């Protein structure tokens, strides 16, 4: 085997090693695998990059000059004095561009700054009061981010101890501070008789190097329990508004429907979590599911959190402007069934109530929105497509969208054919416009909870059954259904894996009219009565069902809304999405 010199690079070593991998009869697969790995161009590139970085690290490169901006200014003055040639004019123009000037300013800032932290020398001696105890001096380099640890006062001894270490913070990365350690001094300031909030203030105001005098805990209390759970937040959270949080600076704010990676559930009250996709590696405190549920239950019991059952529900999307909208669903020569929802115009409480199929206990105990455990999901080849559910506020006209999508591509998309007890007309066919059934059969299916939605119109019963949705999905088609938001919970199962799209008209976006002149401000146009109803309907759905929504579509007109919906549907079968963990287990 050839001998490598000391100056040989990693990529040369890798190439030589690859050439020596000769498969034998006993290890043919293993040798072949190693040869494929070592032959990857990307690995060779990484090795070369590593060598370059090591080379420059050994050279200890320093900036040629610390005043590139000043030099550029001098050059510009010379060029302005005598800029005759085209090359000189071009150079002057380049040096005058704001982007290049900004780069030069950044260069000077970096060149003049020493990034190595300056740590103070260790104290020559330690106070006599600590001689009999094991004292640890810890120095941490802290920038603008919090230190990543919280403290509390021990109820029995009165000592100030470390309560928790935030994952990914400065204290955690150092490995020198542990839960249960007793804190005696911060930057030479004794903290024995100070309140925890006063100590936290000292730590928050400290920049650069922080010196802590610590008596280590007799027993390591912070042995991390491996925890990697993903939760979708079902509520907004701002730690600055939370009086119960032990340290507001350590809190993690988040918005509803953001996915959080919970890295520690050691504390039953305060979890540690990070926002998925966030570049900040430090975890923050969020209320645990149990604690947040207790708070919401208390607020609901005291009346400060209204129950959804006591709220007045505004009207949702209606199929058309006419009262009798049991029309023919034709578009471009294609018949599209399931577009009429006339039964919603005359819903009878006994049949159309959203309480059907639920026990009194379920009705009396509305859901407390905290977190939902989720997992990544991507449809696999041959797997049934997900159900697409449209919900809409007043004015959304969902039937138009459904009709256009199915008519454009009837081989890929379909809708559920509804049931009715009315008589079949001469031009209608069984299973095309409707499934025509007797009133007795309809009510029997109703008793067995086979209908997703149902109601009465002109003494006839109408409904959409779960079986008709399953029939469309069995043909490997994407089934489009539009329902009232109350029906979403019945569809949220691993069988349907619904993707929920909230469609609302572009009302609020149109409120501002363009200014009459550049100096004048845009005037806000008041909403008329119909627009106010639309806005109230959209706000109600967003407030009470927004946590179940996967995408929001603002409908300007039919064509633009169809374009948005088409993009969403194309991504649905390709992209990875977060879904409830029960759907993929």
From TrEMBL:
Residues covered by the Guanylate kinase-like domain: 385-570
Keywords from the UniProt entry: Cell junction, Cell membrane, Membrane, Phosphoprotein, Repeat, SH3 domain
Primary localisation category: membrane
Domain (L27): residue spans on this chain: 6-60, 61-118
Positions of the PDZ domain: 137-218
Domain SH3 stretches: 226-296
TM ranges: none
PROSITE patterns given in the database record: GUANYLATE_KINASE_1, GUANYLATE_KINASE_2, L27, PDZ, SH3
Protein's cellular compartments: Apical cell membrane; Cell junction, Adherens junction
Pfam families: Guanylate_kin (PF00625), L27 (PF02828), PDZ (PF00595), SH3_2 (PF07653)
SMART domains the record matches: GuKc, L27, PDZ, SH3
UniProt-listed InterPro entries: GK/Ca_channel_bsu, Guanylate_kin-like_dom, Guanylate_kinase_CS, L27_C, L27_dom, L27_dom_sf, MAGUK, MPP3_SH3
Any one of the GO CC terms: adherens junction
Nucleotide-binding in keyword set: no
Subunit architecture: Interacts with HTR2C; this interaction stabilizes the receptor at the plasma membrane and prevents the desensitization of the HTR2C receptor-mediated calcium response. Interacts with HTR2A. Interacts with HTR4. Interacts (via PDZ domain) with CADM1 (via C-terminus)Interacts (via PDZ domain) with CADM1; this interaction connects CADM1 with DLG1. Interacts (via Guanylate kinase-like domain) with PALS1.
Biological role stated in the UniProt entry: Participates in cell spreading through the phosphoinositide-3-kinase (PI3K) pathway by connecting CADM1 to DLG1 and the regulatory subunit of phosphoinositide-3-kinase (PI3K). Stabilizes HTR2C at the plasma membrane and prevents its desensitization. May participates in the maintenance of adherens junctions.
Homology family: Belongs to the MAGUK family.
Protein name: MAGUK p55 subfamily member 3
């Amino acid at each position: 085997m050839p001998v490598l010199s000391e100056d040989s690079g990693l990529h040369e070593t890798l190439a030589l090693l690859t050439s020596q991998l000769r498969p034998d009869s006993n290890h043919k697969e293993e040798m072949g695998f190693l040869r494929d790995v070592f032959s990857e161009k990307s690995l060779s590139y990484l090795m070369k990059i590593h060598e370059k970085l090591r080379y420059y690290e050994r050279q200890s490169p320093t900036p040629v000059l610390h005043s590139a901006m000043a030099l550029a200014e001098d050059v510009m003055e010379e060029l302005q004095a005598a800029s005759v040639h085209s090359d000189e004019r071009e150079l002057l123009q380049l040096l005058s561009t704001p982007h290049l000037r900004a780069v030069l300013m950044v260069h000077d800032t970096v060149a003049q700054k020493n990034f190595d932290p300056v740590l103070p020398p260790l104290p020559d001696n330690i106070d006599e009061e600590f001689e009999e105890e094991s004292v640890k001096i810890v120095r941490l380099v802290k920038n603008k981010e919090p230190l990543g640890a919280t403290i509390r006062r021990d109820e029995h001894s009165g000592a100030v101890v470390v309560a928790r270490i935030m994952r990914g913070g400065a204290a955690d990365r150092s490995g020198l501070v542990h839960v249960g350690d007793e804190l005696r001094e911060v930057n030479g300031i004794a903290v024995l008789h100070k309140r925890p909030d006063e100590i936290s203030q000292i730590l928050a105001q400290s920049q650069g190097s922080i010196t802590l005098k610590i008596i280590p805990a007799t027993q390591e209390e912070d042995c991390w329990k491996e925890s990697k759970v993903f939760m979708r937040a079902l509520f907004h959270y701002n730690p600055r508004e939370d009086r119960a949080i032990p340290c507001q600076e350590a809190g993690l704010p988040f918005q509803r429907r953001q996915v959080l990676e919970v890295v520690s559930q050691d504390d039953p009250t305060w979890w540690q979590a990070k926002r998925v996709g966030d570049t900040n590696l430090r975890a923050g405190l969020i209320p645990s599911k149990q604690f947040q549920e207790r708070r919401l239950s208390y607020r609901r019991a005291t009346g400060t959190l209204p129950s959804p059952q006591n709220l007045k529900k505004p009207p949702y999307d209606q199929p058309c402007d006419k009262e009798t909208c049991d029309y023919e669903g034709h578009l471009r020569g294609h018949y599209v069934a399931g577009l009429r929802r006339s039964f919603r115009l005359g819903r009878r409480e006994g049949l159309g109530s959203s309480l059907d199929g639920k026990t009194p206990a379920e009705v009396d105990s509305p859901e407390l929105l905290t977190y939902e455990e989720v997992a990544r999901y991507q449809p696999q080849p041959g797997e049934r497509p997900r159900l697409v559910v449209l919900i809409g506020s007043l004015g959304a006209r969902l039937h138009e969208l459904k009709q256009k999508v199915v008519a454009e591509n009837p081989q890929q998309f379909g809708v559920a054919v509804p049931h009715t007890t009315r008589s079949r007309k001469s031009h209608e066919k069984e299973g095309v416009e409707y499934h025509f059934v007797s009133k007795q059969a309809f009510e029997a299916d109703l008793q067995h909870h086979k209908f997703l939605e149902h109601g009465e119109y002109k003494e006839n019963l109408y409904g959409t059954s779960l079986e008709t949705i399953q029939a469309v999905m069995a043909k490997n088609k994407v089934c489009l259904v539009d329902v009232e938001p109350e029906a979403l919970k019945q569809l949220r199962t691993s069988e349907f894996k619904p993707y929920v799209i909230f469609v609302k008209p572009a009302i609020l976006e149109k409120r501002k009219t363009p200014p009459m002149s550049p100096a004048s401000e845009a005037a806000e146009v008041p909403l008329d009565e119909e627009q106010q109803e639309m806005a109230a309907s959209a706000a109600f759905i967003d407030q009470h069902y927004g946590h179940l929504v996967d995408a929001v579509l603002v409908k300007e007109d039919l064509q633009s809304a169809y374009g948005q919906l088409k993009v969403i549907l194309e991504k649905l079968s390709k992209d990875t999405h977060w879904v409830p963990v029960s759907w993929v287990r």
